[in-house]
C-alpha cells in the first residue's frame, strides 16, 4: 500500500488538522461504576461458596465433555473453590481497562465535516463501551453458573447457558462491526463516491511500523484507534503503554493458570 501511495500525485493543499476543544466534555463512554453490578455478583457467589464449602466432595469436577463426563478435577481447597471468582476479577479488571481506553483514546476528526464526524465518533465509543459492560455481565453470570454447578450439578443447563452466552457476545460484536466502520462512520457506499470529500487525512505513515504498530513519541495519547478493523491499540512510544500491555498479559496468564 505504501508503494502504491508513492506512485500517486502529492496532495496540492497542505495538510490540515482539526480538533474539538470541547470533545472531552462529552460523555464518551458509560461509567466503570456499572461494573459494580458485576463485582456484587462475584462477591455474592463467593460468599455462597464459602458458606457451603463443607458440602462439596473432596475432589471437585472442573471440566466436562459433551456427554457430561468429568474430564478434569482438582482436590477441594478454598483456592480451588474460589479460583473462578479470581478469574472473574481478572476478566472484569481487563474489561474496565478496555472501557477506560475507549474513553481516553485519541480524538479523531475529519477536516471536511468535523461536527458530524465528532457526533458519530461519540456514538461509536458509547456503543462499544456498552457492549464491553454487557459482555462483562454475561461472562460474570456464566462463571457464576459454573461455580454454582459445583454444588448443584446440572450439565444440561450449564451447557445451554454457555452456548447462549458465547453466541450472544459473538453476534453482538458482529452486529456492531457490520453496522458501522471504525470511528463510527457509515459503511462505504460506492454510489456516493462522487459526493465524498476530496480532502485526505493527515499522512502519518511514519508512525505506523509494519502498518499496524503505532509508535509516535510526539503523541501523548496512550491508546489510538486501529488503522484498520475495529478497536483500539496502544502507542508503543509511551512507557505507560508498555505497563498496561504487561498488566493485560499478566491478567490473562494468571486467569489461565487459575482456571486449570
Terminus-to-terminus distance: 44 Å
Count of β-strands: 6
Taken in chain order, the helices and strands follow as HHEEHHHEEEEH
Shape, per Cα inertia axes: elongated
Low-confidence stretches: none
Oligomer: single chain
Structural class, by secondary structure, is mainly alpha
Largest sheet: 2 strands, antiparallel
What is the strand arrangement across the widest sheet?
A: 1-2
Quickly count the helices.
6
Give the averaged pLDDT, no decimals: 80
Q: Per DSSP, what share of the residues sits in E-state strands of 2 or more residues?
A: 5-15%
Rg measurement, Å: 23 Å
What is this structure's SSE topology?
Elements (H helix, E strand, L loop, with lengths): L1 H5 L28 H17 L7 E6 L5 E6 L2 H27 L9 H35 L6 H25 L28 E2 L3 E2 L8 E3 L6 E3 L4 H20 L2
Antiparallel strand pairs: 1-2, 3-4, 5-6
